[in-house]
Amino acid sequence: MPKRKVVITGASGAIAGVLLPALRERYDLRLLDTQKTDKDGAEVAGVHVVDLLDKDRDLYRHHFAGADAVVHCAYYRQHGQGDDVYFSSELANLQLTYNVYQVAWEEGLRRLVAASTNHAADLYETYALDGVAPMITPNMNGSDNWYGWAKIAFEQIGQVYASGVSHGGRPLENVQIRIGGPRETDVENAPLGDLRRMRRALAVYISQRDMAQLVTKSIEIADIRDELGLPFQIFYGISDNPHAIWSIANARRVIGYDPQDNSEERFFDLIQAHMQAAASLD
């Protein structure tokens, strides 16, 4: 049986780097990025150099032709500081996102799985960590920074395409994954004894195999329709973390996400070191 063809944007980036080992085994991949090397300068095999910010979609539509799905991880970063830089950078990301969605729709792809972020609900995080607000759910949108704001708009671009209303009644199904912390270093890097930073790191953790499972199930599950019949979902991308402040209940229900790891077990020794350091500060 031939492998499913899947396009990966931002294939040389950090998020794709976590996913590629599992996705290479499972799919026939078409890898797209503006460069062939990762952040450490190592070449990523099979990458096609493409500028998805270019509005001339004919320059790269052949990469999408015949594909079943796209995993959209591409992100444009403009260097510099200040609101003007951050805002203009995120506007460019929205243009990039539109280009990817539009060419995917034009080429008849079935589904798009997008790398969104937990920062789309940053406004609620402080309250959740303080125990004032309940667990954050995927229908909660609100940010206190331009990155999070743009990801909310990023997700809503997907909702437009999923509805099909503006596209002749033909939807582009999509899943937005609000990725947590796909790193093994966040708990270790929290200042020793800073229990708030430690808890945040524990809450956001997602292991490599859990992220691969979440993405592959988001690609492959036959039906992602919500209660209104719209083929659109937002899932939080975290492992089965006891300290979680983000809900993965809908990912469990809709696609059968069954995370195999949890941060409390994974970082048990580091948690003990943090607790002991905090006790010595009292």
Report on the structure:
42% of the residues lie in helices and 13% in strands. The model has no long low-confidence stretch (mean pLDDT 95). The chain is built from eleven helices and seven strands. A seven-stranded parallel β-sheet has the order 3-2-1-4-5-6-7, sandwiched between helices. The chain starts with a strand and ends with a helix. 42% of the residues are buried. The protein is α/β, with parallel strands linked by helices and 282 residues long.
Task: Furnish the topology, listing elements before pairings.
Blueprint: E1 5-9, H1 14-26, E2 28-33, E3 47-49, H2 61-64, E4 69-72, H3 83-106, E5 111-117, H4 122-129, H5 146-163, E6 173-179, H6 186-189, H7 195-204, H8 208-220, E7 232-237, H9 249-255, H10 263-266, H11 268-281
Parallel strand pairs: 1-2, 1-4, 2-3, 4-5, 5-6, 6-7
Helix pairs in contact: 1-8, 3-5
Query: What proportion of the residues form beta strands (DSSP E)?
Result: 5-15%
Rg: 19 Å
- Anisotropy-based shape: globular
Instruction: Give the helix level as a range of percent.
Output: 40-55%
- For the secondary structure, the number of strands is 7
Distance between the termini: 62 Å
Q: List the uncertain runs.
A: none
The chain-level mean pLDDT equals 95
- List the secondary-structure elements in sequence, H or E: EHEEHEHEHHEHHHEHHH
**Strand order across the largest sheet:** 3-2-1-4-5-6-7
